[in-house]
Amino acid sequence: MIQIQHSIVDSDTPIHSSLSKVQQRIFQALLKEQKIYVYKNEQQLFFELLLREHIIQAAILLAKSKVRFTIFRFSRCNEQFWYRNELGGFQLKETVSPTDAINDIFQNSHLYAFECATAIVIVFYKAVLDVLGANTFNKLFANLLLYDWHFDKDLGVKTRKGNDYIPGDCLYFKNPDVDPQTPQWQGENTIYLGDGLHYGHGIGIKTKEEIIAVLNKKRKRGATKSAYLLEQTTRIDFQYLSTFANVREHAELPIDRNRFVVGAIGSATFLYL
Q1: Residue 147, SS3?
Q2: 72 and which of 29, 88, 210, 252 could share a cystine (Cβ 3.0–4.6 Å)?
Q3: Where do the H-state alpha helices sit in the chain?
């Protein structure tokens, strides 16, 4: 369900000039959830749809790249752009722009190797860069460190309980009976791509069932507990980041009032399928 101040939107009217097919699928997923997603205006909603689409695109790009999966001990980076610290993380060099460094991961992917949490953060950064542009990105993220779940406060990454999985979310598969000899497989962070597909660094683009099957092969001898998808979502702060965007004028979405039950409380409008 979506709550928007002063207006109602509908993705089934002719809006192909405003939303891509991926954005339409994301929008439908938001509409169908029981949870209320609140936006101040249509532009704020459009920004989230656009950024989620770019998260999906960045995840697919990383999946198709030559980046390798490895543990922190054996991580690698392009030392023209990054210092590799003693923990296996990548610290941005002072003379390098954040934009150039993030783009290099995708352009010279064969020089990089890292684990799955770092991969998720890189996907988030790449998507924000592609939506906000180089100048804004460089100002917001001037001192990048890529290491595990370390992230700049302006990215606003937060994890919440719930099974309202929306394309562009980071989800987590837990492997409770992991083999202690391979602790890196105690779970898998993924980007949900929609249509039942996930991108997991080191696993690739797979269905939920396929990811669980891979993790189950990494269990200790005599294991009885299957890997499973946690009921939680990890997201960047879409609404905060939208304050830095120049939203396109055609972002207003047409309304089909005949397909929805509409309710209002004060100035807020509620839209139900």
Answers
A1: strand
A2: 88
A3: 21-32, 42-64, 98-107, 116-132, 134-140, 208-216, 238-242
**In this structure, what token pair is assigned to residue 233?**
């979502």
- The alpha helices in 109-206, defined as continuous H runs, are 116-132, 134-140
Check if the beta carbon of residue 44 is closer than 8 Å to that of residue 5.
Answer: no
Query: pTM of the predicted model, to two decimals?
Result: 0.87
DSSP codes joined into one string, 64-116: HS--EE--GGG-B--TTTEEE-TTS-EEEPTTS-HHHHHHHHHHSGGG-EE-H
Question: Which residues, listed in sequence order, are joined to residue 229 by a DSSP beta bridge?
Answer: 173
Alpha-carbon distance 140 to 58, whole Å?
Answer: 19
pLDDT(16) > 70: no
CA separation, residue 25 to residues 78, 134, 159, 255 (Å) = 36, 28, 23, 17
Q: What's the pLDDT score for residue 43? A: 86
In this predicted model, what pLDDT tens digit does every residue of 182-235 receive, in sequence order? 999 999 999 999 999 999 999 999 999 999 999 999 999 999 999 999 999 999
Supply 208's token pair.
């939920």
N- to C-terminal Cα distance for the chain?
8
Coil, strand or helix at 188: strand
Q: What is the model's pLDDT at position 2?
A: 75
Burial label for 68, CB within 10 Å (0-12, 13-18, 19+), is middle
Distance CA 58, CA 131 (A): 11
